[in-house]
Amino acid sequence: MSPSELEELRKQLKDLLDAGFIRPSKSPYGAPVLFQKKHDGSLRMCIDYRSLNKITVKNRYPIPLIADLFDQLATFCTLMNKVLQPFFDRFVVVNLDDIVVYSKSLEEHMGHLREVFQTLRENELFIKEEKCSFAQQEVSFLGHIVGGGKIRMDKSKVRAISEWEPPTKVTELRSFLGLANYYRRFVEGYSKITTPLTNMLKKGKVWDWKPECEKAFNQLKQEMMREPVLALPDFAKPYEKA
């Protein structure tokens, strides 16, 4: 464990101890601790309890079915959409528990935030301060960077595509195209470029990575690595629809 991680461990253990979630112990047994970096750069403490789990008496309470979890998720989405519906198409976009508030000026933004906060408070919904970013010129949302009437691909996704090695089997190709297809709107002539690749996914097709497949794969990567930007049209001016 690095010095910075050790210092973070002391801090988090003290916070847990002060909150009464843990207590001092003289047990000769222990579990390894490791840290995972969060999206904001802070560290999440993880404890490896695999050895303990092997000897733990299992709780026989029934595990929820996946369908039940989907129902709960759908219910939550319905709640969020119902609560914030008056602000849709005006200054709010919602995806699950992510709320984006957009405004034309800082003054207008402050007013929009007050309305959203008041609505959440009235419905006993809470936000976590450390997960919030206010008065931003651009934000990361659903794998895109959005701001100033423009939208572009998330740099981490562009990096992942640029480092992708040529696939050697169908599952690898399907995984690559799954990511690429999400950003197809950024690539002019996407369907034409990927035709040799999508043909490889046809049922009963024998894997044969031909030169045209390699060419299409590299061309698609190059198109996305250019980091193209999409902009909202100015409806007050003439423009062409491609």
Describe the overall structure.
By secondary structure, the protein is an alpha+beta fold. It has 3 domains: about 5-55, HIV Type 1 Reverse Transcriptase, Chain A, domain 1 (Roll); about 65-135, no CATH class; about 155-230, Alpha-Beta Plaits. It has helices spanning about 5-20, 50-55, 65-85, 105-120, 155-160, 170-180, 190-200, 210-225; strands spanning about 35, 45, 90-95, 100, 140, 145, 150-155, 230. The protein has a 4-stranded antiparallel β-sheet with strand order 5-6-7-8. Strands 1-2 form a two-stranded antiparallel sheet. The protein has a two-stranded antiparallel sheet with strand order 3-4. It contains 8 helices and 8 strands; from the N terminus they run H-E-E-H-H-E-E-H-E-E-E-H-H-H-H-E. Strand 6 and strand 7 form a beta hairpin. Helix 7 runs antiparallel to helix 8.
Task: Describe what is shown at a glance.
The chain is of the alpha+beta class and 242 residues long.
Kindly report the oligomeric state of this protein. Answer: single chain
Shape: extended
CATH fold name of the largest domain? Alpha-Beta Plaits
Low-confidence stretches: none
Please tag this protein with its features.
242 residues, alpha+beta, Alpha-Beta Plaits, four-stranded antiparallel beta sheet, 8 helices, 43% helix, 13% strand
